[in-house]
């Protein structure tokens, strides 16, 4: 057990806390990070020659961000850290990585996948125009690069990130055209009992909305997106929506930040053959995990937003918990009290997560209502009409078959941004529950890399996970 | 809503994308300049810029969609969507959001391969 080979994928809040627990136990885990810096997306670090203080980058979460960065800096000698490294496949007991054109197969006894999340997207006519970005992209532009995605930015979608990023833009001096939320306000009131599981977070959210309104920024709820207006060559020129009073209006802007809360990055769990189950509340397929993050595959653990969208605090707790579970399974002594406390934390955060799902629901009905000419697959410009045609006329009623016939989900993003909406469009087209359409299977490589990549000549020293 | 500084409206199939910057710098503007080229034109960015930010601080788009629906300027900025591929002058492909700009880089926004328009 002392020589156990443990790999952590991801260096965000979950991955860092998992690595910390493993290092404390005397293991020297390999930490694979696709990015060049630790912190994940939420606590993403700016380049070294930038000078904004953490308070400006992370706002109310600055102390947590700097604590996480400091924790990882302190671990660097006790873990085998591999930045700029893509984990592109999992086969039984082996993680396959590529780093600067060199591939490596790394055997493991335990694999803790902390792969994070991306924005969950619902197409709208015109979302393929240049100047439309995911909400996460809008935040990365500001946080990691100190730029705004446009001169006048409209925020469209739903979820807490919508308000957070808009307020960060406002505070940084960007022009915010407005915040347009598809969720009706009444749902927030209804979700209050669950949201009160984390009163401080709820209070911060309310303060954000108040601050936006004080700054004179339009904040509207219960809107229905109609179209992102513009031209193929010039890109976005406006956002057309139907407001809650039923009026169709165009808001002038040259950029739209679009997102409907988050979806977990589950490709590695899928390739590891973990079981998935349909979560009716959020209407998405999630890998099955026990209270501590064990997947259905022995030796594979899932934590952080890549498993459940608990947010950054929840990811820290879930990462630590998954590492303790792995240690216990590898035969280490782990105190019950430590596990129990983290389980209680995660349970509270999961209650809050369910509150967010209720307050800011995925607008499934919007998929059914998309005009046929709407591009669903941004990668290859494939329309809702084409997807409906293969479902209705060609009998492609299952997600992977529809992908094979229409190519929706087969392009460069590998279905990350069209897969969930595509399933809703198929379900509505043939009048069947969305879960019966299934989900797009993860495919290796989980992201493209060059065919010229070659195996690392000397794989010695990597098999034991010894620090470099 | 934008016009080029030279006043041309650059609309139409042959006009190409407008050249005004899409991104707006809000802070961190005192960094060392980096010089590179975009389709042969000289351009300046700042040390620490990603290639995506460097390009969109000099123009409005990164590339043309190979499926005929216009120009593209990236989408996720976190290496997940692959919308921001550009090319080096020797034909190599770069993902602009996860590549740093560097002095002397020579970037092509026109795809060296064929394109397959599917839209009318």
UniProtKB/TrEMBL annotation, chain A:
Keywords: Oxidoreductase
Domain FAD/NAD(P)-binding: 5-309
Stretches assigned to the BFD-like [2Fe-2S]-binding domain: 375-427
Organism: Azospirillum cavernae
Coiled coil, from the record: none
Family matches, as InterPro entries: BFD-like_2Fe2S-bd_dom, BFD-like_2Fe2S-bd_dom_sf, FAD/NAD-bd_sf, FAD/NAD-binding_dom, Metab_Enz_Cyan_OpOx_G3PDH, Opine_Oxase_asu/HCN_bsu
GO molecular-function term, one example from the UniProt record: oxidoreductase activity
Record protein name field: NAD(P)/FAD-dependent oxidoreductase
One Pfam family it belongs to: Pyr_redox_2
From TrEMBL, chain B:
Protein name: (2Fe-2S)-binding protein
Ranges annotated as biased composition (Basic and acidic residues): 1-12
Pfam families for this protein: Fer2_4
GO molecular function: iron-sulfur cluster binding; oxidoreductase activity
Keyword flag Oxidoreductase: yes
InterPro entries xrefs: 2Fe-2S-bd_N (IPR042204), 2Fe-2S_ferredoxin-like_sf (IPR036010)
Provenance organism: Azospirillum cavernae
Location of the region described as Disordered in the Swiss-Prot/TrEMBL record: 1-26
Gene3D superfamilies reported in the protein's UniProt record: 2Fe-2S iron-sulphur cluster binding domain, sarcosine oxidase, alpha subunit, N-terminal domain
Keyword terms of this UniProt record: Oxidoreductase
SUPFAM superfamilies xrefs: 2Fe-2S ferredoxin-like
